[in-house]
Amino acid sequence: MDQAIHNKIVSFIWGIADAIRSGSYLLYDGALGIGGMLTVGEETLLQLATARGQQITTHLYGQEINPETYAICKADMLLKGEGENADHIVGGAEWSTLSHDAFPAMSFDFMMSNPPYGKSWKKDMETMGGKDAMRDPRFKVMHQGEELSLVTRSSDGQMLFLANMASKMNHDTPLGSRIAEVHNGSSLFTGDAGQGESNIRRWLIENDWLEAIVALPLNLFYNTGIATYIWVLTNRKPEHRRGQVQLIDATQWFKPLRKNLGKKNCELAPDDIQRICDTYLAFQETPQSKIFPNAAFGYWKVTVERPLRLHSQLSVKAIEGLRFASGDEELRGPLYAELGEALVEDWARVRTALEKRLAEWADESDESGESDEPAKKGLPEKTKRRLLDPATWERDARLVETATALRQELGGDLFADYNIFCERVDAAVKKLALKLSATDLKLILRAVSWREESAPPVIAKTHKPGKAKADPLHGLFSLAPLDGERAGVRGKQAVIVEYEPDPDLRDTEQVPLLETGGIEAFIRREVLPYTPDAWIKADASKIGYEISFTRHFYQPQPLRTLDAIRADILAVEKEAEGLLDELLQGGAK
Q1: Is 168 helix (H, G, I), strand (E, B) or coil?
Q2: Is 233:15 a contact under the CB 8 Å cutoff?
């Protein structure tokens, strides 16, 4: 990163320049590189203190995984006679900041960093025990009585560097801590509600630590043209900033280079840096500065359910499909066609033939790609074990036998109401004294049923009278006695039921935290007019946070005038007429 960027980032220290007092200050960078950002931060802090007649001592701490850059940083400090600071520089290939925190019990006054973007941290995650088993207090935090996992996707760990620094804030001094960290655009919006990236944003914003984010010009770096942003955090916001976040669009504030340096074609001139600082300090609404309440970036991710609606029929074709209920139908089908009922009735005899067939499939390769049969080369061992397990064949045959018995008892007519169908099946099972587990019964029911929009909803649970109140918005529906009778629910008074949700119709809605009336008002306005049978799955709602610079700073291009469009059309027509004349003249010759 060039010197101008360094200076720009540390210039945010000016926000607390007048609060600096004589004493010792600790500075930290968790992605140190050769130490340039940390050194410039120290120089700026010393200049501020000297200008105000304060005597301060600075102590530098840093961690760097790259052995070469770590060595350069340490050597530079030793050559400058800063032996004590050099002792606080830790690094090397085995010292990743994410998996091996070199300063676990320390807090710092100023923290600056430019962590790697889009770099996998899968190795670190495995070292820390995996995503679910990780207990590092930097990345598993208690927030408002809830444990939040800040663990991001393994393909990009840049947000974890920010969480690492936030965990090292000094909460015991009047000055507190200040953080400035550079990120690419993905840190603003990646991660769904409840996922690591979103939880980090939520944790920072709801703790009121995020002060500002600055969008930098494109092509500012040597090796990439991606958009970059500076996140500014503090745990000691001034009164007028509390509960708010400032977004600054500095993408157009730059000086073009005379000659490109790789992808870098611009730089921040001193007046650009000053303009950014002035905009930040002014804390006012302008076309390039927007101020929002913290909650403006948050939303509820709400799961919206709709009832499952089924028709049922004990048809011969549907029943026959149960013969492969254990899975691998594309493999079991040919095997059953070849070996038949012997797979159940004479397993000892057909096992050898079955093993031989599976071995042949494992060696086959459909080079032409013309065969309609599925490729069987390299059958997974798990699949082989399943096909060689006689219990799976016996179970499937038993399902077919049971379903056939039910068909003989109930007939093959269509049932337009799944609830009544289930009631009749239950009665038939008892009458025929069939031994059937709940899992097997469910398999049979679903194998002979299919979705139908016109069917009555499938009832999952019935509440006893007086035990629940109707609340359709949250999935508690009232059935009048007659409707209940039609649905197989006996009773002389209305009952409260819950419907089984249809996974294929499940949807989610993002409801802003600032939505007037909250989730319920949003659902009533945006969902129920179009799907009146929908309800909210309350225990599935999650809070998420994302920040969209594009939405807040988007400036649409003005539409072209009709005269300009008309002129272009006439020009094209004139050109086309000339071409046509040339073609006709050429043909006459």
Answers
A1: coil
A2: no
Domains defined along the chain, listed by start: 3-17+24-303 (3.40.50.150), 310-451 (no CATH)
CA gap 260, 334 in Å, rounded: 65
Integer Cα distance of 247 and 289 in angstroms = 6
pTM for the predicted model, two decimal places: 0.83
Which SS3 state, helix, strand or coil, does residue 63 take?
A: strand
Contact 89, 35 (CB under 8 A): yes
Q: What is the mean pLDDT of each run of 10 residues along the chain (589 residues)?
A: 50 65 94 91 88 91 94 90 90 90 94 92 92 91 94 94 96 93 94 95 97 92 84 94 96 89 84 91 94 97 96 95 90 88 87 85 54 55 87 92 95 94 94 92 94 94 83 90 58 82 95 95 96 92 94 84 90 79 65
Nearest Cα neighbor of 278 from 579, 12, 93 is: 12
Tell me the residue type at 202: R
Q: What angle is formed at CA 454 by the lines to CA 448 and CA 460, rounded to 5 degrees?
A: 60
Q: What are phi and psi of 556, to 5 degrees?
A: -65, 145
Backbone torsions φ then ψ of 478, nearest 5 degrees: -95, 130
Tokens read off for 117: 């973007």
Task: Give the Å distances, CA to CA, from 383 to 279, 361, 406, 481, 530.
Answer: 64, 12, 31, 50, 45
Dihedral-angle region of residue 327 (phi above 0 means left; psi in -120 to 50 means alpha; beta otherwise): left
Structure tokens that stand for 517 in this block: 């009336």
The burial of 71, by beta-carbon neighbours within 10 Å (0-12 exposed, 13-18 middle, 19 or more buried), is given as middle
Residue from 138, 110, 117, 118 nearest 37 by CA: 110
Class of residue 576 by CB neighbours under 10 A (exposed 0-12, middle 13-18, buried 19+): exposed
Full 3-state SS string of 405-445:
HHHHHHCCCEECCHHHHHHHHHHHHHHHCCCCCHHHHHHHH
Q: Which residues in 396-415 are b (16+ Cβ under 10 Å) and which e?
A: bbbbbebbeebbebbeeeeb
